[in-house]
Amino acid sequence: IDDVDWYDALYKNTAFSMEHNASISGGNSKFNYYTSFNYLDNNGFMKLADDKFNRYTGMAKIGAQLTDWLVMNYVMRWTRT
Q1: What's the 3-state SS for 5-68?
Q2: What sign does the dihedral 7-9-12-13 (CA atoms) show?
Q3: Torsions phi, psi for 70 (to 5 deg)
Q4: d(CA 27, CA 36)
Q5: Within a 10 A sphere around the Cβ of 5, how many other Cβ atoms?
Q6: Are 63 and 27 in contact (CB under 8 A)?
Q7: Backbone angle region of 46, left / alpha / beta, with phi > 0 → left and psi within -120 to 50 → alpha
């Protein structure tokens, strides 16, 4: 019987990962906006497979005071994996 450390044979000890975030916001008392973007690059721990995960995420928010009694808010989210 072979004496194999299967955990060591299949998995790495470390994996590279990075994440970046950027956002912009502004406005005044009648109109405001916010937008953001995120990128995630995550390499996995498997030695024998292409074990990685990439994600892109974006978000936008817009708010407007249309009249004294009417406020409009819009939110959009987007994700690609």
Answers
A1: CHHHHHECCCCCEEEEEEEEEEECCCEEEEEEEEEEEEECCECCCCCEEEEEEEEEEEEEECCC
A2: positive
A3: -125, 120
A4: 15
A5: 7
A6: yes
A7: beta
| Residue 38 amino acid letter | N
26: amino acid identity, one letter: G
Element (H, E) at 75: strand 71-80
With residue 71 as reference, give the H or E element that holds it.
strand 71-80
Q: pLDDT truncated to tens, each residue of the chain (81 aa)? A: 578 888 888 888 899 999 999 999 999 999 999 999 999 999 988 888 888 999 999 999 999 999 999 999 999 999 999
Give the amino acid at 63.
G
